[in-house]
């Protein structure tokens, strides 16, 4: 099973690399914000799988829980900030 | 490897591979769609479903070596992440869409004519 989790983690990090294309060449600023959100969700999964691979599930669960909450709050703050600045 | 662990392994493999499939489709949609709103729609839905499926798979696998209290707490926390992202994902997507619409980004149309007049009278 560990090889399966390792393979899934590698696939997810490959998807992250593909998403970074939009972060670099994204025409508008808001595209870059979504790519940050998308990359954040994928690293959330990679964190959980790393917990399974290293058999330290109780530590990695807290890290990924914190990561999920912070990435959610980050998206809200981006939304709130960019409306006022009108920079989009 | 009792029959229970074999069944659990199969269920975990199916759940996590479905989750990664939805992540892949979300990424394809995120790259190929012409404008911001359709990209946001693709990633918002597919990532939320991918997180929920994969988190339930990981939560099930966290129980595979016996139902001690520690394992149950860990898998409950992982299920909490799944439920939290199931509620938080669409909320974050809505907030981003709302801010983009308020700052004047118009939806993409094939012939370039705006289908929504801006600023609203």
Structural overview:
The complex is a heterodimer of chains A (88) and B (121). With 88 residues, chain A is mainly alpha-helical. Chain A has one domain. Chain A contains 3 helices and no strands. The model of chain A has no long low-confidence stretch (mean pLDDT 88). Chain B is an all-alpha fold. Chain B has one domain (3-102). Chain B is built from 3 helices and no strands. Chain B has helices at 3-32, 36-61, 69-102. Chain B starts with a helix and ends in a 19-residue tail after the last helix. The model of chain B has no long low-confidence stretch (mean pLDDT 88). At the A-B interface, helix 1, helix 2 and helix 3 of A face helix 1, helix 2 and helix 3 of B.
SS-based class of chain A: mainly alpha
Mean pLDDT over the full residue set of chain B: 88
In total, how many beta strands of chain B? 0
Give the termini distance of chain A in whole angstroms. 45 Å
Form type of chain B: elongated
Tell me the number of strands of chain A: 0
SS summary, helix count of chain B? 3
What is the number of helical segments of chain A per DSSP (H or I, 4+ residues)?
Answer: 3
Mean of all residue-level pLDDT scores of chain A: 88
Please bin the fraction of helical residues of chain A. over 70%
The low-pLDDT segments of chain A are none
Number of domains of chain B: 1
Largest protein interface, residues of each chain: A-B, 45 and 48 residues
- Low-pLDDT stretches of chain B are none
Biggest beta sheet attributes of chain B: none
- Fraction of residues in β-strands of chain B: under 5%
Q: How are the elements arranged and paired?
A:
The complex is a heterodimer of chains A (88) and B (121).
Chain A lengths: L1 H24 L3 H26 L2 H29 L3
Helix pairs in contact in A: 1-2, 2-3
Chain B lengths: L2 H30 L3 H26 L7 H34 L19
């Amino acid at each position: 099973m560990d090889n399966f989790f390792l393979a899934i983690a590698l696939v997810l990090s490959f998807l992250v690399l593909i998403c970074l294309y939009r972060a670099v060449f994204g025409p508008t600023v808001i595209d870059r914000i979504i790519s940050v959100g998308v990359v954040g969700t994928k690293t959330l999964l990679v964190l959980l799988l790393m917990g399974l691979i290293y058999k330290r599930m109780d530590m990695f669960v807290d890290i990924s829980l914190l990561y999920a909450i912070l990435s959610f709050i980050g998206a809200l703050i981006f939304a709130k900030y960019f409306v006022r600045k009108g920079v989009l | 490897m009792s029959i229970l662990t074999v069944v659990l392994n199969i269920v975990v493999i199916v759940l996590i591979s479905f989750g990664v499939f939805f992540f892949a489709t979300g990424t394809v949609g995120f790259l190929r769609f012409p404008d911001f709103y359709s990209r946001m729609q693709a990633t918002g839905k597919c990532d939320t479903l991918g997180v929920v499926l994969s988190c339930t798979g990981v939560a099930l696998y966290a129980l595979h070596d016996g139902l001690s209290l520690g394992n149950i707490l860990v898998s409950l926390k992982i299920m909490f992440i799944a439920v939290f992202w199931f509620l938080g994902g669409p909320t974050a997507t809505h907030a981003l869409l709302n801010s983009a619409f308020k700052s004047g980004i118009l939806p993409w149309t094939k012939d370039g004519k705006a289908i929504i007049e801006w600023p609203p009278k």
